[in-house]
Design a protein that fits this description.
Elements (H helix, E strand, L loop, with lengths): L2 H44 E3 L1 E17 L2 E5 L11 E6 L5 E2 L4 E5 L2 H53 L7 H58 L2 E3 L4 E5 L2 E3 L2 E3 L6 E2 L4 E6 L4 E8 H4 L7 E6 L6 E9 L4 E2 L7 E10 L10 E18 L4 E3 L2 E7 L4 E5 L1 E5 L3 E6 L6 E3 L13
Antiparallel strand pairs: 1-24, 2-13, 2-18, 3-12, 4-6, 4-11, 5-8, 6-7, 8-12, 9-10, 13-17, 14-15, 14-18, 15-17, 16-17, 18-23, 19-20, 20-21, 22-23
Helix pairs in contact: 2-3
Length: 426
């Protein structure tokens, strides 16, 4: 190799060697520095300095919004008719504002209208039959009355002839007596048959009247069924569709759909006054009372926050969703204020204010541990953490108030039991 090339490559080799030596010297120090930084960060995350601050206690409840005033529209149940389903011909659009008396839904009323006309024709026919039967009875009564009057006159005439028996022959006297007896028998028979005829005629007319009245009720039922095919709103509000089972799918109704009688498929709600129904655990029941205030948040719209007031609590509980041991109670909150997005059947969260404490010693809940039911906290002493019993007060989801056993400025550990204390080697 030429001498010039050797001298040119020597400075480059010396530079690379010096750089490698520098890296070998600094790398351990850098590693130690990173370990110390990690340990410091781990310690900062695992300890907490006790301080005094204002403590607020709140209870988080979850529920569903609903209108305080609403009207549920059900597919009508028809009286005296076997109807499997009804076809919707007109329908108010979802979200539309309606006034009292506005049309909500209209069903196909052709069958009910035809049934009403048929029942009306049958009723009118029976009304005519009753009138005809009554007229025939009036004619028969007049005829029988005339017959009775004639029989009475004949009896009177025969009795007058009997008075002449003293001056007539014996044969004529006997004939007069026979005429009186015959007249008396005829009158008696006519009176007896007269009552029987009236009773029979009255029974016949009553049968016709019963048939007429039954036809009238059937006509009224048919008329009522026809009127039920149109449903109008009894109140002002907003139209809300219910999700129902429609044959082979779940969804909301549309024009032309068929619905079964008694199915609630639509509602009119008053959005000016909304409320939230929640299920409350029996453990939290003693903490609340009617009149307490809360803040309501909608899960679908996190930016909306409205006030709410606890109106009433159910006095009877029922089994919870996950266990039969703990009972739950229903509670109703009224919402203060309105929002265009606040509609029924939305999931909502309520933060119920249970009170607050000023200038209280507060520590994170994760620092609190228990030994045989007695609370204690790991407090930093001379180079290590020692176990110290404490007395606790109110708590919320993240913090707890310490009434005794700690002082402001104490360093406590947040690591779970069984893990090394901050700064200790495993």
């Amino acid at each position: 190799m030429p001498l010039q090339l050797i001298f040119r490559s020597k400075p480059k080799a010396l530079f690379l060697g010096a750089l490698s030596l520098l890296i070998l010297i600094l790398l351990p120090r850098l590693f130690v520095h990173l370990r110390r930084a990690q340990a410091s960060a781990s310690r900062a995350e695992s300890i907490y300095r006790v301080e005094k601050k204002n403590f607020s206690q709140a209870l988080r409840l979850n529920g569903t919004t609903m209108a305080a005033r609403s009207f549920a529209v059900l597919a009508p149940r028809l009286e005296g008719a076997q109807v499997g389903s009804m076809v919707i011909t007109k329908l108010a659009p979802a979200g539309a504002s309606v006034k009292q008396g506005d049309l909500l839904v209209e069903f196909d009323a052709q069958a009910q209208t035809k049934d009403y006309l048929d029942k009306k024709a049958a009723y009118d026919n029976l009304v005519g039959q009753v009138a005809q039967k009554q007229a025939e009875e009036d004619i028969a009564r007049s005829k029988d009355d005339t017959g009775l009057q004639q029989a009475e006159d004949e009896l009177k005439r025969a009795q007058l002839e009997m008075k002449r028996n003293e001056i007539v022959s014996r044969i004529d006297a006997e004939k007069n007596q026979e005429a009186v007896d015959e007249a008396q028998a005829t009158l008696k028979q006519l009176k007896e048959t007269y009552q029987l005829k009236r009773a029979a005629a009255g029974a016949g007319i009553r049968i016709q009247e019963i048939q007429r009245d039954r036809a009238l009720e059937a006509m009224r039922y048919a008329q009522s069924n026809a009127s039920k095919m149109t449903v109008r709103s009894p109140m002002a509000g907003v139209v809300v569709y219910n999700t129902i089972w429609l044959g082979s799918r779940m969804g909301t109704v549309q024009q032309g759909d068929q619905v079964h009688p008694g199915l609630p498929f639509l509602s009119v709600v008053d959005p000016s006054q909304m409320e939230v129904r929640v299920e409350m655990n029996q453990v939290d029941l003693l903490k609340v009372h009617p009149g307490m205030h809360a803040k309501m948040h909608l899960d679908a719209y996190p930016g909306i926050e409205l006030g709410a007031t606890l109106e009433d609590l159910s006095p009877l509980g029922h089994n919870g969703q996950f266990t039969d041991t703990i009972r739950v109670f229903s509670a109703r909150f009224t919402v203060q204020g309105t929002d265009p997005k606040l509609l029924p059947d939305l999931s909502a969260a309520l933060d119920l204010d249970l009170g607050s404490l000023e200038n209280a010693l507060v520590v994170p809940c994760q620092s609190l541990e228990f030994d045989s039911g007695n609370p204690f906290i790991w407090v930093e002493g001379s180079g290590s953490f020692e176990k110290r019993a404490v007395k606790t007060g109110p708590r919320n989801d993240t913090e707890v108030v310490v009434l005794s056993g700690l002082r402001e400025g104490d360093i406590i550990r947040l690591t779970p039991p069984g893990e090394p204390a901050p700064g200790e080697r495993p």
